[in-house]
Structure formats: structure tokens, C-alpha cells
Design a protein that fits this description.
The structure is a single chain. The protein is built from 15 helices and 31 strands. α5 links the parallel β6 and β7. α7 crosses α15. It folds into four domains: 96 residues, Alpha-Beta Plaits (2-Layer Sandwich); 314 residues, Zn peptidases (Aminopeptidase, 3-Layer(aba) Sandwich); 80 residues, Immunoglobulin-like, CATH 2.60.40; 89 residues, Sandwich (Immunoglobulin-like). The protein is α/β, with parallel strands linked by helices and 595 residues long. The strands form seven sheets. Strands 8, 9, 10, 11, 12, 13, 14, 15 and 16 form a nine-stranded mixed beta sheet that branches. Strands 3-4-2-5 form a four-stranded antiparallel beta sheet. Strands 17, 20, 23 and 24 form a four-stranded mixed beta sheet that branches. It is 27% helix and 27% strand.
Length: 595
């Protein structure tokens, strides 16, 4: 690992410290930062709780609220001008990116070792510095090259300045869709919160490097589909150029807080999105948002810096989430593991001293976050983390924070191996059913229910107790199943088959009548019976239960269908169900039309 540009970083810190200490008014200092960085970092001293509420509503990027209601915030020019109208006392602060020297590396030694096929021996001594942007792209690319069956690199989009927003899919048999629980881990949505940028890369390297060697990590990659986005806001992180994070800023190049720009369940207008409609569609948001739209992430974390806590929804509304006791259990599990790792030295004790809390009630109200979006719109379970009060962690401390959080993070991933989970399939064809809904009608609210993915897989975390889960999908007969959950840390397998409408189980009882085989014939099929019924009604249904064609068979052992519907239009290729009814009984059989 080759460290670079420490002299440059020190020079930047000195210059910015001089700027901060100039004998000018707070107003002038603020505009010096706004004119050079497009954002200002400052403390606000509200006179009353009413002032605090105004700030929450009108200042889109609050960082934290300290004791005594001292507000630490960021603002672009527009927000700062709005803030000035309140005539509140404020103090301009030195931006976090200038409070420590940023250790940088091009990671050439690591990359060369990987290219030469070396494994565990090359990882020791790395991940102690922040990569240059070019090194980051090479590292992500090398993950895929070195582990082609475990890692797949996806360019999700590009930033305003043309840097790539990269996603890395990590799982065994990575090019297949195997019906696994899905996890999303993002970092640096705020570009100056860089600790989890380097620690995400470290975790990816650990998972890939130890696959097949460490039983526990191998089990994770065999059974979970991971998605990592270590560098959500590349323009913010590399505001000072591709070779340093020393000048990192919170906002993107347009001066937008990307974690106040998601669809929000709050019903308010402002600088954030409203009920799924963006007020400002930033390209970095669009890149990651497309990932949210494509997949259901059963569990996710958005990692931050600025305080030390594990949090749960909501952020924009006071209403507590469905199954809040599960969130509390999961957060406490993480924090307790961290406290053990750090020997209870005071790390991760924000939010009242226990290091965990509800965002709205124990951190601060904020709107347009990925956390609320994940729960309310994507139907996943988000637990965001703030892992360091210091946003730009110096080289000497990076490995310390890694040690505090590594075991807790692995345990966090293992949550995806618990809960009620299984597949929902068509009872006739055994094909997976996409977008089947799983809900507890007497319990669920705020989109707490689950849906199946393309493999028919679902996962549901729910409170302890006995629940009646209803499985439903368009074109299928719904089914309700009782299940008892007695522990949060246990997996409850539950595979379900749903009958297509018109082909219920009672209609598939075989008497003396049977369908012996279905064979292609011209543009259609030939249906052979086991015997020749005196008279039979033959109905062909699509998989949504719609009647396609009705035929009559009389004293024949087979009948032809020419592949057209009742209006003599040629039907599409696909799955169909034949249902035959006669005095001898009923029979049904599925088939695939593939001309």
C-alpha cells in the first residue's frame, strides 16, 4: 500500500484553518465557505422549541442536535439565506474534512497481489487509508476479476461530474437468481462521512477472500445476496479531486443533500420528495433508486458518521413502525456486540447512552431519507448506523473502528438467515409466483407486508406470537396459514403453493377420467385421454384463470386444439391449464405452448 499526498492534505488544512480564523463576521465566514465549497457547516442556537421546529421544517440538512438544542447543520446558499430570516445566533464551524489529515493510497501493492492470484496474505496491512478515486474503481473491478463466481460489478449510473456510481453484487453463483434474502449496504451518501467507505471495501474483501476457508462467511455468501454501494456520492467525497478526500463535502455537486431527496411518507413539501415524486432528481439518487426499484431488499443499512448509534424508522413521522420490537432487538444485538468488542470504553453510546434509538424521537426529525423510503415503499427492514462521531477518521483509528464493528456487522448479516421465509409457487406448474403478497391482515400497517421476488422467494420479520399469514396473488386462490414465532434469532421455513383460479385442489381429483399426455400437433396440441369418455367438456385456461377456449369431446380418446382462442385468434406461447369434466370425473393438467 502506497500512501500519497499527505503534504497536500496538511497544506489544505492549514489554509482552511486560516480562512476559519480570519477576523471577520460569521456572515462573511459563511459566505467564504459558500462561495468556495457551495456549503457551510455551522452551529445554530435556537431560542425556543418553536425555533427548533422551524429549522427542522425549513433547513433540509441538519447533522445532529446536541444537548441544549444546539443544532449542527449544513446549508447551501439557498438554505442559508432562508435560515438568515429567522435572526438566530449561529457560529460557522470548520468543516469535518479539514479536522484531520486524510491518509490516501493508490493501493498498487494490493491490486498487483490480487492480479497475481494471491489471497489472504495480501490483505494484511491494507484498508488503513482511503483510496484515490481511480484506485477505488480498480479495486471494485478487481473484486469481480479475482472472484468471478462471487462478485459482479454493476455501473448503476454516473455522478454530475461523470464519476461512476458502482454497485457490487456479492454471493455464491453470482450470475444466477437463486431466491436468496437480499441485503443492501450503502455508504457516503453524505460525501464527507468516509469511514464506512473504506470499511465497506474491507468487508467486501473479507467476505470474498475468506469464502471456502471460513465456514461462517461461506454460509453467508451461499445463502444471502449482498449488494454494496461504498461510494454513493463520489463528487462529494472527491470534491478536491480524484487523489484526495481531504476536501470532501456533504452535498453532491449540485449542493443537494442526497439523503433528503427520497420519496417521503410525511405528506409535506419542501426540499425533499413527496409521496414518490422527486422535487429534484439527482443522478446519484437516480442510480441507487433504480436498484431499489429493481429489487426488494429484505434488510439494509445506510452507514453514516457524525454520532455513534444504531437507528430505526421513522425519520419523518412520529408514528412507530410495525414490528418495532423486532427493530429494538436487532439494534440492541448489534450495539451489545460492539460494546463487548470495545470493552465498554464509551464507544457507541449516543441516543441517551445506550447507542440505539428511533430516529424521529431520539435523533431528530428529517425528511426524504432512504430509511423511510426503504420501509414505506420498498417494504424492507432498514437499520441505519452512525459509526463514528469523527467523520474523517485518521489513519491511526481506521482499524480501531473496524475492530469494533466487524463481528457486529457479521451478526447483522446473519439476521437474513432468520425470520419466516420460503417460496410461493404455482401448485400446478410449480413455477415461482412473482409479486405474491404475504401479510397478516390484523397486524400489518404502513406496507409492512412482504412480496415475492422473481424466484418466488419472500422473507418476513415479525413480532413474537402466533400469526395468520395470508398468501395471495392475482389469478390465484388465496391461502391463510397459521405460524408461531417464538424467537427472533430462528429461521421459520414456510413454502406455499397457490392454486390458479379455476384449478382448485377439489377440481384436480382424478377418477376414471385422466389426461394421459399432451403432445404438440401442427400449431396446437393433441390431448390424449386414458379412456374415451362418452362426453367431456375440455376447457383451456391461461395462468391468470381466464378461459381461453372450450371444446367438446364425444366418445374419442383424444382431441385436437389448434392453438386459438374463442375468437379464433392465435394465442401467445406460455403456460396453460387444461381442465376436463365428464360424467366419469374431472382431471386437469398444465402444459407449455412453445411453437
Amino acid at each position: 500500500m502506497k500512501p500519497t499526498r499527505c503534504v497536500f492534505s496538511l497544506t489544505v488544512i492549514v489554509i482552511c484553518s486560516q480562512l476559519y480564523s480570519l477576523n471577520t463576521s460569521e456572515y462573511d465566514r459563511a459566505y467564504q465557505y459558500l462561495n468556495t465549497r457551495n456549503e457551510v457547516y455551522f452551529a445554530i442556537y435556537p431560542n425556543s422549541p418553536a425555533d427548533l421546529k422551524l429549522l427542522i421544517n425549513d433547513l433540509s440538512s441538519i447533522d445532529r442536535i446536541d444537548e441544549g438544542n444546539k443544532v449542527i447543520a449544513y446549508a447551501n446558499k439557498k438554505d442559508f439565506e432562508k435560515f438568515l430570516k429567522y435572526n438566530l445566533k449561529y457560529e460557522v464551524l470548520l468543516p469535518p474534512c479539514f479536522q484531520n489529515i486524510a491518509p490516501m493510497s493508490d493501493y498498487k501493492d494490493y491490486l498487483n497481489a490480487r492480479r497475481n492470484g494471491l489471497k489472504k496474505t495480501v490483505t494484511h496491512g491494507n484498508w488503513l487509508a482511503y483510496p484515490t478515486y481511480d484506485a477505488y474503481v480498480q479495486i471494485m473491478t478487481q473484486f469481480q476479476t479475482s472472484f468471478p463466481n462471487l462478485a459482479k460489478l454493476v455501473v448503476l449510473g454516473n455522478s454530475i461530474q461523470g464519476r461512476q456510481v458502482l454497485g457490487l453484487k456479492v454471493t455464491n453463483n453470482v450470475n444466477a437468481s437463486n431466491g436468496k434474502p437480499r441485503f443492501l449496504q450503502t455508504a457516503t451518501v453524505h460525501g464527507d462521512e468516509v469511514l464506512n467507505y473504506i470499511n465497506s471495501l474491507h468487508m467486501i474483501d473479507t467476505l470474498l477472500d475468506r469464502y471456502g476457508l471460513d465456514t461462517r462467511l461461506t454460509r453467508l455468501l451461499d445463502n444471502i445476496e449482498f449488494w454494496f454501494v461504498p461510494l454513493y456520492n463520489p463528487d462529494g467525497t472527491y470534491r478536491g479531486g480524484n487523489n484526495t478526500v481531504q476536501s470532501a463535502q456533504r452535498y453532491n455537486q449540485n449542493g443537494v443533500d442526497l439523503n433528503r431527496n427520497y420519496p417521503c411518507p410525511c405528506g409535506q413539501t419542501g426540499n425533499h420528495a413527496l409521496y414518490g415524486l422527486y422535487t429534484s432528481r439527482e443522478p446519484e439518487n437516480a442510480a441507487v433508486f433504480n436498484l431499489w426499484q429493481k429489487y426488494v431488499f429484505h434488510l439494509s443499512t445506510d452507514q453514516h458518521g457524525g454520532t455513534e448509534t444504531v437507528l430505526w424508522p421513522y425519520a419523518a413521522i412520529s408514528r412507530r413502525p410495525c414490528d418495532e420490537a423486532w427493530y429494538i432487538w436487532a439494534a440492541k444485538r448489534y450495539v451489545d456486540t460492539v460494546h463487548k468488542a470495545c470493552n465498554n470504553n464509551g464507544y457507541m453510546t449516543s441516543c441517551g447512552g445506550d447507542g440505539m434509538g428511533n430516529i424521529f424521537s431520539e435523533l431528530y426529525e428529517c425528511h426524504g431519507t432512504s430509511i423511510d423510503y426503504s420501509l414505506f415503499y420498498n417494504r424492507g427492514r432498514p437499520l441505519p448506523m452512525e459509526t463514528s462521531i469523527t467523520k474523517l477518521v485518521p489513519a491511526s483509528s481506521i482499524v480501531t473502528y473496524w475492530g469494533y464493528n466487524k463481528e457486529a456487522m457479521i451478526q447483522f448479516y446473519e439476521l437474513l438467515l432468520t425470520g419466516i421465509q420460503g417460496t410461493v409457487k404455482n401448485s400446478v406448474t410449480k413455477a415461482p409466483i412473482l409479486h405474491a403478497k404475504i401479510n397478516e391482515t390484523t397486524h400489518d400497517f404502513d406496507s409492512a407486508w412482504s412480496y415475492t421476488d422473481t424466484a418466488g422467494f419472500y422473507l418476513r420479520f415479525i413480532l413474537l406470537g402466533t400469526w395468520n399469514l395470508t398468501f395471495s396473488a392475482p389469478g390465484y386462490v388465496s391461502k391463510t396459514i397459521a405460524i408461531t414465532v417464538s424467537s427472533y434469532g430462528v429461521k421459520y421455513p414456510l413454502d406455499v403453493e397457490l392454486d390458479p383460479v379455476g384449478t382448485a385442489v377439489s377440481d384436480r381429483v382424478f377418477f376414471s377420467l385422466r389426461i394421459s399426455k399432451i403432445v404438440p400437433y401442427s400449431n396446437g396440441i393433441r390431448i390424449d385421454f386414458g379412456s374415451a369418455p362418452a362426453s367431456a367438456r375440455v376447457c383451456i385456461y391461461s395462468m391468470d384463470g381466464s378461459l381461453v377456449r372450450q371444446l367438446t369431446a364425444a366418445s374419442v380418446s383424444s382431441i385436437l386444439w389448434d392453438g386459438t382462442d374463442g375468437s379464433r385468434r392465435v394465442v401467445r406461447n406460455g403456460c396453460y391449464v387444461i381442465k376436463v369434466t365428464s360424467a366419469a370425473g374431472k382431471a386437469s393438467k398444465s402444459f407449455v405452448m412453445n411453437r
